[in-house]
């Protein structure tokens, strides 16, 4: 298993996919930092000492921080999808899987090795991007920096790195069953449905339209990625049951708060996807 994991990491670096994404991520962090810097310079003089000024400052800080984390999550998710959808199917299509199957290597070890290798890279990358956005918000934001504790950051980081783990698990399942192209299409569609359904749920909660909330819950059950991001913002901005909490406001807020049961469901979702990927690959004929 560890041999497969090591070769998976080497393969990604050899194709330079990870290097290109890393350079683009650095560019993203630079532009995010510049945006925070100039916006802070424009809005800082408008802040005063009154209650409205304090609320305005809190709202803007959480929105800019949430925006950075949202796009960081989007970049990480795309990397997770594109690096894993062909990790098994591409080997099958090119017949490079035959040498591996001829060795004394269990098929389950091959799939799980791919899963471990991909996640070692993606979790490291997720931590780097999350801490990068956080550091820029705290050090460059000045008046616009979000007030978060280390405990809140640790909770949010745990959910942030869980997103690519689940994406890799589901991608491996599709990669073990269908072609690389079809796997990529399925994953992108599921990701879009999950994120779009999350926005529908939030708008439904704001406008008190129960049908929209139910649609969002159903899409979260189909693909729970958006629920992880929403729960992450709750941990960061501490909504609790406060109706005027900053975590419930703005486009990146969470009026409809995902439950802890949904977080357990998301973890089980990923574990079952890995199990199905192993089962599908073990029963597949070549």
TrEMBL record:
Keyword Transmembrane helix found: yes
Domain of life, per lineage: Bacteria
Q: NADP: present as a keyword of the record?
A: no
Q: Could you tell me the keywords of this UniProt record?
A: Membrane, Transmembrane, Transmembrane helix
TM ranges are 12-34, 69-89, 110-133, 153-174, 186-205, 261-278
This chain's protein is named: ABC transporter permease
Q: What is the lineage of its organism?
A: Bacteria, Bacillati, Bacillota, Bacilli, Bacillales
């Amino acid at each position: 298993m560890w041999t497969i994991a090591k070769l998976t990491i080497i393969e990604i670096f050899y194709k330079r996919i990870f290097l290109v994404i890393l350079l683009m991520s650095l560019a993203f962090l630079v532009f995010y930092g510049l945006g925070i810097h100039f916006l802070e310079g424009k809005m800082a003089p408008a802040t005063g000492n009154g209650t409205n000024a304090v609320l305005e400052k809190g709202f803007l800080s959480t929105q800019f921080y949430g925006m950075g984390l949202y796009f960081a999550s989007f970049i990480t998710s795309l990397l997770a999808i594109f690096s894993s959808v062909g990790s098994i199917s591409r080997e099958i299509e090119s017949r490079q899987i035959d040498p591996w199957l001829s060795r004394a290597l269990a098929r389950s070890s091959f799939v799980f090795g791919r899963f471990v290798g991909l996640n070692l890279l993606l979790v490291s990358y997720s931590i780097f991007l999350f801490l990068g956005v956080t550091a820029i918000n705290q050090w460059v934001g000045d008046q616009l920096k979000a007030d978060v504790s280390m405990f809140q950051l640790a909770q949010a980081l745990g959910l942030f790195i869980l997103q690519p783990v689940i994406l890799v698990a589901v991608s491996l399942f599709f990669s073990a069953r269908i072609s690389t192209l079809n796997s990529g299409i399925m994953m992108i569609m599921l990701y879009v449905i999950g994120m779009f359904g999350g926005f529908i749920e939030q708008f439904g909660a704001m406008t008190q339209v129960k049908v929209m909330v139910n649609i969002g819950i159903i899409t979260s059950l189909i693909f729970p990625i958006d629920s992880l991001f929403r729960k992450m913002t709750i941990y960061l901005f501490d909504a609790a049951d406060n109706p005027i909490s900053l975590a419930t406001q703005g486009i990146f807020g969470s009026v409809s708060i995902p439950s802890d049961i949904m977080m357990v469901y998301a973890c089980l979702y990923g574990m079952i996807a890995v199990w199905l990927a192993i089962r599908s690959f073990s029963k597949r004929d070549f």
